[in-house]
Amino acid sequence: MKLFTQMTKIALFAASLSITGASVAAEPMNLDSLLKTLENGKSAQSEQNKQREQEFAARQNEQVQMLKSTQAKRNQMLVGSERLETQFEENEVKLANLTDTLSKRMGSLKELFGVLQQVAGDSSNKFATSIVSAQIDGRSRFMDELAQKMGSTSKLASIEDIEKVWFELQREMTEQGKVSRFNASVIVEGGTKAQQEVVRVGAFNLISNGKYLEFNPSTNSLSELTRQPVSRFTATAEELQTTKSGVVQFALDPTGGSILGLLVQAPDTQERVHQGGTVGYVILGVGVIALLISLERFFSLLIMGGKIRRQLKDTVARNDNPLGRVMKVKDQFPSVSHDTLELKLSEAILREMPKVTRNLTLIKIISVVAPLLGLLGTVTGMINTFQAITLFGTGDPKLMAGGISQALVTTVLGLVVAIPTVFLYTLLNTRAKNILLTIQEQSAGIIAERSEKGA
């Protein structure tokens, strides 16, 4: 009724607007005409409202029918739900009874299938990483599928599956004691693949063309080790591959390739030297200088010693050796007293001494400075290591161990330079002292001879 009243007001307002608009365009309307117009509009509005009420009543009946239909479906589904719930409870009881019956009938077989599942799972992991799989593929997949099937309560292993598990285990043990040859695709240096003959030594190593191979279980591929062992080991691999029969020596990795895999990560001597950094290069440069000076002094003293030995056998003094130049002092001053001659000979010996001991002090200094430089590099490297620990923590032991290892490289280089330098200095210093002792001995003889003549 409120809606009807509002619609009536709107109609009257519209009629008044039309009357107002018409009054502007036409002549003014009298009261009778206005009343008649309102009556006509009221009649038309009443007819429209009746029509709308009839449509609403028809739709209300439709909604009632839909509600009744939905309620009927709901009641039907409730009945079905109660029926399914009852059936579910009955099935649970039946399933429990069947499971109990199955367990009683299986008896000891249940333990057997449990052991079989465990063996299949363990064998799957072992076969996946075994290098025998490089030649015999598919064993790991069978074991994995069997373990998954055994994990299901609805499927049991057949006699054929049990026999195949036994066969695969026996074949793995048999192949571990064989040296087999087969053709396979190998990733060689440069990343290219080549079809080559591969020799498998039990479950330990794979070789091809005299090089050790690496087996990647995830991709089931073979590749050459990026860094091969030393030549005495690769020589045995080449000999094994070329020899078709007989017994040969072979460098075997008992870990199945783990030690050979570590060779890729272990730095060689050249990389170790580079780890020393700037301090390491300085130590090596100083060591080269010490070596060159030592070689020059060694050959100079060797030649000088040979000339002095020849001078000892000759009575004529020569200028090509220190002893000859000292002996010439006697000829230059034939009439002076032995005291004066002693001073002259001492002066000549002092002149020859720098030539004999030249650069020996520098070698000694290098032998002392080299380990100090190594210690400097170690301290610097340790500082960098502790700074890295401060930033990243000690969660990764390799970070700390690698930093300490690099820091100690300079100490090793310093000792490598210092130890042989000390030996070289001792050797050269001994030779120089022997030459000087020989010169002093001959000078003392000359003074004694002049003293006897003066007496």
Task: Explain this structure.
It is built from 13 helices and five strands. Helix 11 runs antiparallel to helix 13 (397-454). Residues 1-27 have low confidence and may be disordered. It starts with a helix and ends with a helix. It is of the alpha+beta class. It has a five-stranded mixed β-barrel with strand order 1-2-3-4-5. It has helices at residues 2-25, 31-106, 109-129, 139-150, 159-175, 231-242, 258-265, 269-275, 277-312, 322-332, 338-356, 360-392, 397-454; strands at 179-187, 193-201, 205-208, 211-216, 221-224. Helices cover 73% and strands 7% of the residues.
Describe this structure in a few short sentences.
This protein is of the alpha+beta class. The protein has helices spanning about 1-25, 30-105, 110-130, 140-150, 160-175, 230-240, 260-265, 270-275, 275-310, 320-330, 340-355, 360-390, 395-455, and strands at about 180-185, 195-200, 205-210, 210-215, 220-225. It has 13 helices and five strands.
Jot down its keywords.
5 strands; single chain; elongated; 455 residues; 13 helices; alpha+beta; 7% strand; five-stranded mixed beta barrel
Secondary structure layout plus pairing:
Layout (H helix, E strand, L loop, with lengths): L1 H24 L5 H76 L2 H21 L9 H12 L8 H17 L3 E9 L5 E9 L3 E4 L2 E6 L4 E4 L6 H12 L15 H8 L3 H7 L1 H36 L9 H11 L5 H19 L3 H33 L4 H58 L1
Parallel strand pairs: 1-5
Antiparallel strand pairs: 1-2, 2-3, 3-4, 4-5
